[in-house]
């Protein structure tokens, strides 16, 4: 029976590891599945036939001498156990492993250097016209006192004007996965509805109004830079989910990066979905930087488990939507002022949710929940390199397009050049409780066609016509007093 998932927590200070194995089917008595230690290797053997055995852990890659396994648990489609060794070559492990450093938050362009225009990442409609920005400044996060943002305010406070966070017409402020611009620069290129900003052409959610509608916060993954030869298409350098998580954890707990944390280790993420539902993710961090062994896919035809070291964040999480019931746990978390809160883009939120949900499946049911009341679920976030994230994104995109368009075969070089952030989001954005005709087959085909740069204009027009009644309705709403400016 083939392995579906596998994760080994490695704790060199205890000379032990904890193996989580997930199989395709539940393990039943008649199959006689056994774990065998043979010459310091750990095998899974079925029905005692050697040909069926699958190698789980080979000792000689990292010089491990596994001598004992314990806490052996079989439940459902899971097997888990602990193993002990007396020796391991940590240097070899480290050399062959993946170690991702945090990359500081930096825009892809500099002050007064390039004319930068911003496009909707979905339909490439220009939403912010070209501008050579005079000031690029980091926007204060919720954890920083806004008065520290402007140095001139520290002087004579009696005559100084109160600090304004509203950027000027050629200023761009930025923060974790967003940019802040003056409302006036958007003109009539967007649709404003209940404090949210949508692309006027395709209704893609771009961001939110802030500072009494004087400014907009636009999500970096809802936008891209207008292609010019000297610039990448992404607003930020290294815009991967791994970097977002690393930066977020550092913002929440600046001093706790490498330590096992107890006590104040909870955080709350908020995102507004395109239908303006608020979704929340409760996070409880158990370990920021845990050594993990994962199975890596080898290109050779030999089906053998090759293990590689990664680092991971081990955590509990739970997602709530404002469209769902049972908000008592959520309310309890929201009331605690010591729990840091972060508003993030719906696209990153859903990508993180997908990643954590998929890794949660590695954990046997018995260990899945933190408490019976809160029911947060155990999961891991594996820190991956930019290239690994990119390949994963392309795989997800191909899986999404496969049923209708067939596999797209491209040379590898070309694959790595393309980089889109909106991949794989569409499917999850339409919620089950939303019933309209947007789920018809022709429409989703149009969606896929629009992913392609050279989408025929006919497909686009077809989409536009379909959305027109809704758009008109939104326009009408934005003419109401609380949605002025249009
Ligand atoms: Zn658009
Ligand atoms: Zn919802």
TrEMBL record:
Residues 476-486 have a biased composition (Polar residues). Residues 428-440 have a biased composition (Acidic residues). Residues 392-486 are annotated as: Disordered. Residues 407-420 have a biased composition (Basic and acidic residues). It comes from the Eukaryota. It holds the Pfam family HECT_2. InterPro entries: UBQ-conj_enz_E2-bd_prot (IPR019193). This is CG7326. The lineage of its organism: Eukaryota, Metazoa, Ecdysozoa, Arthropoda, Hexapoda.
């Amino acid at each position: 029976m083939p392995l579906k998932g596998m994760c080994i927590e490695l704790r060199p200070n205890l000379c032990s590891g904890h193996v989580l194995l997930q199989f395709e089917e539940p393990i039943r008595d008649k199959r006689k599945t056994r774990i065998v230690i043979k010459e310091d290797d750990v095998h899974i053997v079925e029905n005692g036939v050697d040909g069926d055995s699958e190698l789980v852990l080979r000792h000689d890659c990292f010089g491990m001498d596994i001598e004992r396994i314990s806490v052996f648990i079989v439940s459902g489609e899971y097997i888990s156990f602990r193993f002990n060794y007396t020796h391991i070559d940590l240097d070899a492990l480290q050399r062959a492993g993946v170690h991702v450093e945090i990359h500081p938050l930096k825009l892809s362009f500099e002050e007064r250097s390039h004319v930068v225009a911003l496009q909707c990442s979905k339909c490439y409609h220009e939403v912010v016209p070209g501008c050579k920005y005079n000031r690029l400044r980091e926007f204060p996060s919720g954890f920083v006192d806004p008065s520290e943002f402007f140095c001139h305010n520290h002087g004579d406070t009696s005559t100084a004007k109160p600090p304004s966070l509203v950027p000027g017409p050629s200023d761009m402020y930025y923060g974790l996965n967003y940019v802040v611009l003056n409302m006036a620069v958007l003109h009539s290129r967007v649709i404003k509805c209940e404090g949210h900003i949508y692309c006027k052409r395709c209704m893609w959610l771009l961001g939110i109004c802030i500072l009494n509608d004087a400014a907009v916060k636009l999500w970096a993954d809802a936008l891209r830079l207008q292609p010019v030869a000297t610039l990448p298409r992404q607003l930020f350098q290294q815009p991967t989910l791994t970097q977002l998580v690393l930066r977020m954890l550092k913002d929440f707990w600046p001093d706790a990066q490498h330590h096992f944390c107890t006590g104040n280790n909870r955080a709350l993420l908020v995102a507004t979905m395109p239908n303006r539902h608020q979704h929340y993710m409760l996070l409880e961090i158990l370990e920021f930087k845990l050594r993990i062994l994962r199975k890596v896919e080898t290109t050779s035809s030999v089906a053998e488990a090759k293990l590689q070291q990664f680092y991971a964040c081990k955590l509990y999480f739970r997602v709530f939507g404002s469209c769902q019931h049972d908000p008592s746990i959520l309310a309890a978390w929201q009331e605690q002022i010591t729990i840091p809160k972060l508003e993030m883009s719906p696209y990153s939120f859903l990508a993180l949710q997908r990643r954590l949900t998929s890794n949660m499946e590695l954990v046997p049911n018995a260990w899945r929940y933190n408490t019976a009341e809160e029911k947060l679920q155990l999961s891991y976030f594996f820190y991956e390199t930019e290239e690994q994230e990119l390949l994963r994104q392309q795989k997800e995109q191909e899986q999404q397009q496969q049923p209708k368009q067939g596999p797209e075969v491209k040379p590898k070089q070309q694959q790595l050049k393309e980089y889109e952030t909106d991949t794989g989001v569409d499917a999850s954005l339409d919620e089950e409780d939303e019933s309209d005709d947007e789920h018809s087959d022709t429409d989703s085909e149009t969606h896929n066609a629009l992913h392609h740069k050279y989408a025929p204009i006919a497909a686009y027009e077809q989409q536009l016509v379909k959305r027109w009644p809704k758009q008109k309705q939104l326009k009408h709403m934005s003419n109401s007093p609380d949605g002025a400016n249009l």
